[in-house]
Amino acid sequence: MTRSHGLKSRLGKMLILSNGYYGGIYYHGILLDAFRKHDGKRARIMMEEHLQHGLYDLESDNLGQEKNDL
Fold first, then answer.
1. Which of 3, 38, 46, 53 is deepest in the core (most CB within 10 A)?
2. Other CB atoms closer than 10 Å to residue 46's CB: what's the count?
3. Is 22 buried (19+), middle (13-18) or exposed (0-12) by CB count in 10 A?
4. Residue 3: pLDDT over 70
5. How far apart are CA 10 and CA 62, in angstroms?
């Protein structure tokens, strides 16, 4: 395994852990397809949706943690 491949692998695992498996795979597949088809409008919409879902997930995780802290 090359150093570059090892870094990509670790980054991929971090992405899955931070965004969830479903969100990471689902949105990134759609984004890749939009980029390949040079569909900037679709890529922008999907990226905004992806980021918003990530924010919702982080907020709900934080709310759960705050409840556990009480």
1. 46
2. 19
3. exposed
4. no
5. 25
